[in-house]
Amino acid sequence: MKRTLALLATCATALGLTTLATPQAQAATGCKVEYTVTNQWAGGFQAGVKVTNLGDPVTGWKLEFSLPDTAQKVVQGWNATWSQSGSAVTAANVDWNRTLATGASTDLGFTGSFTGANPKPTAFTLNGVACTGSVGGEEPPPDPDPGPNPTPGTPVGINGQLHVCGVNLCNQYNRPIQLRGMSTHGIQWFGKCYNNASLDALARDWKSDLFRIAMYVQEQGYETDPAGFTSRVNSLVDMAEARGMYALIDFHTLTPGDPNYNLDRAKTFFASVAARNAAKKNVIYEIANEPNGVSWTAIKNYAEQVIPVIRAADPDAVIIVGTRGWSSLGVSDGSNETEVVNNPVNATNIMYAFHFYAASHKDNYRATVSRAATRLPLFVTEFGTVSATGGGAMDRASSVAWLDLLDQLKISYANWTYSDANESSAAFKPGTCNGSDYSSSGVLTESGALLKSRISTPDTFPTS
Ligand code: IDC
Q: Which residues form the signal peptide (predicted)?
């Protein structure tokens, strides 16, 4: 007979929520324990204990729990060093399982003896942190800070917490909406472009709904300073929130193309940003920018490991999954959307990324999007008006055909890039970010002028 005791979390909470005033990276903590009685006989039982680390990686750990009375004894345990004092039991790591990455699990077990009632251990802790099944389970704040109320009339003020409904992105009134906005360039290179003046221009002059924060993982990005980049992303989320814009947190994997290369980094990063931003309504998570040279199965496997880490801390946010062939739904790899339609990610409230560069990707890509949009929730988290190199001439006709299609299908988009990079995809002329003028037409490139004219037209957000 197999019985499972539900010892999982009921309350999602996070240490980070209590420290909104200091946008610094916190050491994320948290754990989940699944306790299963796998066999039981007169006076004895066997139990499996699956321990999942939901916080930052640990090296060396101690699982502690209580048995209901001193008559219950651990007789023999495995995969840990077991000890008991009164009703308190400790299982300490053995050498080979001493490291638990974020999201990693280890299986322990023991046989026990008991008299009377069935054995029901309680109060599991991992390194002293209660295993509530969520991040930062140590001392749940009774009433998480809901954050400042979004300003009425702004995109976040009108639409509130978003969710996926059918193939659409829906607002708090359960009506489909389209978000139109801009992506940063790599924040490790163009950080100076993201300041109060440039964000004011984006929100007020461009009337942008969306600000994508491209945090490269390689190329001098996150991997070189996890705490620093986490904190920079969090402050950009706050700057977008203060202006009523949605913030799309982009884990900008690019080279290498297999997102699994960065799996542990992704778990650590998302556990932290999701805990810290859980109460906000303006956050959307993009877990892998452009998978390339990797199968859909491998991407799906990555997604199914990262999504639960986000959900444990921030259960209701929309999450976007990159697709094969540089987020082309497989088209740039000679495949198409059917590999996703036939084998979707096993999760709810998610969308799939589609990227294009208008001078390189034309009719067959548009046909794919038209077809796929009837089956899959799509989000164009990045596109350019130029060639896939980010440079070359702007292709106005193709760009306009794409933007018209996205408007018609209510597919949200972010344009690469809101920066003054010396390449034609940038919206500002080189040197703009050294000054304070982000509003006059003189600072815009050809691409910037086109995008500003498209994004600044009135939104039609349904409110009932
Ligand atoms: C490009 C930048 C360029 C940078 C290069 C490598 O525009 O300045 O040197 O990345 O980091 C993408 C990627 C995006 C690329 C962009 C243009 O998501 O990182 O940015 N692009 O090549 N996919 C298709 C095109």
A: 1-27
